[in-house]
Amino acid sequence: MIYKKTKNFEISKTFIYLGQTINDALQNLSFTGFKICIVLDKKNIFKGVLNDGDIRRALIKKRISIQKLIIYTIRNQL
Predict the structure, then answer these.
(1) What pTM was estimated for this model as a whole?
(2) Domains in the chain and their CATH numbers?
(3) pLDDT tens figures, 18-37
(4) pLDDT value at position 74?
(5) pLDDT value at residue 50
(6) Could you write out the three-class secondary structure of the chain?
């Protein structure tokens, strides 16, 4: 398998925090180019990962606007 080299990758760029909006997570996914966000709490403790599929399933399941859906909700509903 061939892996693409990434210049100056900082894992912290993928961090997203509980309580942030899904819009924030989508912007993070777009900005980093990676397919996951690393979810942390306010004490920077790892809580899990969030990917675009998680967001898509939550939006379909909940039928709620992206501005109102927060990361805590997705983490506890899926």
Answers:
(1) 0.69
(2) 14-77 (3.10.580.10)
(3) 888 888 888 999 888 888 89
(4) 59
(5) 86
(6) CCCCCCCCCCHHHHEEECCCEHHHHHHHHHHHCCCEEEEECCCCCEEEEEEHHHHHHHHHHHCCCCCCCEHHHHHHHC
